[in-house]
Amino acid sequence: MSQTRGSSNRPATATDVARIAGVSQSAVSRAFTPGASIAAETKLRIIEAARTLGYRPNAIARSLITRRSRVIGLVAAYLQNHFYPDVLELMSRRFQALGYHILLFTADAAAHADPVMEEILAYRVDGLILASTTLSSALAADCRAAGIPVLLFNRTARASQVSSVTGENERGGRLIGEFLIAGGHRRFGFVAGVEVSSTSQDRERGFRAAMAAHGLPEPLRAVGHYTFDGAAAAARTLLSRPDRPDAIFCGNDHMALAISEVARFEFGLKVPQDVSLVGFDDVGPARWASFSLTSFSQPVSTMVDRAVEVMIEQIEGEAPVPRDVIVPGELIVRGSARVPAGCVSINGQLVWRPEGSAP
Amino acid sequence: MSQTRGSSNRPATATDVARIAGVSQSAVSRAFTPGASIAAETKLRIIEAARTLGYRPNAIARSLITRRSRVIGLVAAYLQNHFYPDVLELMSRRFQALGYHILLFTADAAAHADPVMEEILAYRVDGLILASTTLSSALAADCRAAGIPVLLFNRTARASQVSSVTGENERGGRLIGEFLIAGGHRRFGFVAGVEVSSTSQDRERGFRAAMAAHGLPEPLRAVGHYTFDGAAAAARTLLSRPDRPDAIFCGNDHMALAISEVARFEFGLKVPQDVSLVGFDDVGPARWASFSLTSFSQPVSTMVDRAVEVMIEQIEGEAPVPRDVIVPGELIVRGSARVPAGCVSINGQLVWRPEGSAP
DNA sequence: TTGAAAGCGTTACCAT
DNA sequence: ATGGTAACGCTTTCAA
After folding, report:
1. Residue B85: closest CA among chain A residues belongs to which residue?
2. Are residues B51 and B86 in the same domain?
3. Are A85 and B101 an interchain contact pair (Cβ–Cβ within 8 Å)?
């Protein structure tokens, strides 16, 4: 309907449109540039001509000259973890609304994102978001040199010139520790995610700080690598011990689900009567009655908002400085861990806020 | 380290590299074009110069002239459904390995993908994949005119010039019907996904065909819109009836999980003693002991392979014709539905293959 | 308001 | 094997 040319022909260009509208090619450009100086009447004629030809401005040519691709590179891993699809979907929507789009790269989970980065940089993305991945400081330097802002999502980097958006990993870990201690547990376990990740380290540090503050021994420990199978294996290790923990802080919800499965169906344990389980993230399945998982929340929507906000500021702002944003969460209380005193109901949801820990 | 210029400067171009390597800009281009005619020695000198400058070929400029962006537009919805993150991750990896990348768009689930399409086409993607979405035939025509191959993933289109990759929706639905009938059930229920989707329609048609073939009445019916909450609501409707079904075919696993939750925790029903549940997709959580879901499989890895294969053929092949690929699945038998005779164990996994239904 | 012309950073096609 | 030059389709001066 909108095309008289066959499929072998090339898409219409601004020059084609200019010809049949009887204007210059520059005029066509202006017709598609909001706020450009053009007479309403000519603009109308051009738009009309464009429609007959099925013309759309070529974003590639535009990027070449404006030096802005309006594309954000996003490196993701762990898409099995329900947290990330949510992040991806929201982030894509927010950026879409701002005229940006996401070029998706997948990286191997436990490694730096370096290998795929070469390709990303070739696309001249306006910004780079690493979700649950990090990059070498060499590459971070390359990005800085190329003027490409980098943002780590759910990770922090030691001292690079990159921004980050995370949840309250350390506070969350500590609160979970306090919560389990208050619940009267005695033998604590911790299932780490990827050991080198700042997120896992921060959560563990907070958790251990709580133990230490109460003069309790260090928690037992296993590594789940943030994967379902890894966590299941970690659970088997922990739960096979004669002195098996009566409370386990699982490094994130995705692992907590696996651990809950293993505890109940392989070891025949009752949760929380035999073992209390607490996760981190508060993803969708945590709410499912099958799991009813107590978890420290990382509010995806807010985290994404802040990430988009910071990224846009880095891209469009004058001389922006990297920012580290921490998005506050809550200890969401459900049924997978024994419940101590001190819970309050917020909007119908039980949360744990011991005195003096208001977020 | 690799840059002496400040961050405000522009990234190095081939001309910059040419200058310090003492060659022409064309030579630089050849140095980065595999198989181009260039002396090994000059190439080395150029690569070296490129490294000192931190030069990377600009993919945007390249796309402009080659008319190939090496970008595939992917429109996704339903990222909460575990099926799609898996698809996304695998697809991204496969394309990455072939030098293509994915530009991600999110669309509203139940609607055509038309609104975002304008933006997609501006990026001059080499191909377009719609995962669980469709497009209007007008837009399909636009894509054909623009020479952009379109592939529907997990959907089919009536008669457009687009390719598709799906599972065995109709056969799966029929097999599930046969399976439940063989299991001795009497009152059947079906929870549809998005009613206008080919996938939901095909599954339902197969299911009803099985009922009809056995002279059984039509199944009760509710619509879950392929969402968790929608399916939960549908389950409440169905299970509240005095003649509540003793077997429900849930349009996909994502909905089956919701229905299982509602049946067990809200209605106190035992699965499968009080009600049998069968899903479709065989996603990860179907295997979890909490659900142990019987489900007709859609092998993600194979489906993605075929999708990538078809897409590459459409992009790179001579005069390719649209293809409709159906990837065979199996009825994976677990504990959520009463098990009739006729199950066989394949690689340690129970599947149902009544005589004469070998895939 | 409009048009002409100069790029943007490549690849492709000539010559050499 | 190499260099020069013309595109690619647009935005952005700069004059008119």
Report:
1. A79
2. no
3. no
Q: Does residue B188 sit in the same domain as residue B263?
A: yes
Residue A147 is assigned to a structural domain of this protein: yes
At B215-260, the pLDDT tens digits run: 999 999 999 999 999 999 999 999 999 999 999 999 999 999 999 9
A289 and A319 belong to one structural domain: no
In a domain, A287, yes or no: yes
Checking each nucleotide's C1' against the CA of B61, the nearest proves to be C10
Closest residue, chain A, to B284 (C-alpha): A80
Strand D close to B49 by CB, under 7 A = no
From chain A, pick out residues whose CB is under 8 angstroms from the CB of B290: 260-261, 264-265, 290-291
CATH code for position A281: 3.40.50.2300
Residue A43, domain extent? 14-57
- A301-314, pLDDT tens digit by residue? 999 999 999 999 99
Distance in angstroms (rounded) separating the CA atoms of residues A162 and A337: 37
- Chunk chain A into consecutive blocks of 10 residues (it has 359) and report each block's average pLDDT, rounded to whole numbers: 46 96 97 94 96 95 96 94 96 95 87 79 95 84 87 89 96 98 97 96 98 97 97 98 97 98 98 98 98 98 98 92 96 97 94 74
Instruction: Assess whether A343 and A209 both reside in one domain.
Output: yes
- Both B277 and B173 in a single domain? yes
How far does B152 lie from chain A, in Å, by closest CA? 19
Please give, rounded to a whole number of angstroms, the shortest distance from the CA of A285 to a CA of chain B. 10
Residues 6 or more apart in contact with residue B236 via CB below 8 angstroms? B262, B266
Note whether B272 and B208 are same-domain residues: yes
Average pLDDT, chain B: 93
Same domain, A146 and A178: no
CB contact under 8 A, B79 and A89: yes
Q: Are residues B36 and B129 in the same domain?
A: no
Full strand arrangement of the beta sheet holding A220-223: A220-223, A188-192, A247-250, A276-281, A294-297, A331-332, A349-352, A343-346
pLDDT of residue B145: 82
The whole-chain average pLDDT of chain A stands at 93
Q: How many other C-beta atoms can be found within 10 angstroms of the C-beta atom of residue A333?
A: 23
The DSSP code sequence of B312-341 is: HHHHHSSS----EEEE---EE--SSS---S
Residue among B103, B260, B261 whose CB faces A101 most closely: B103
Q: Which nucleotide has the least CA–C1' distance to A27?
A: C2
pLDDT tens profile B111-155? 677 778 888 999 999 999 999 888 888 888 888 888 899 999 999
Q: Nearest residue on chain A to B261, judged by CA atoms? A: A289
pTM surpassing 0.70? yes
Listed residue (B277, B120, B107, B287) closest to B190, CA to CA: B277
Q: Are B260 and B336 in contact (CB under 8 A)?
A: yes
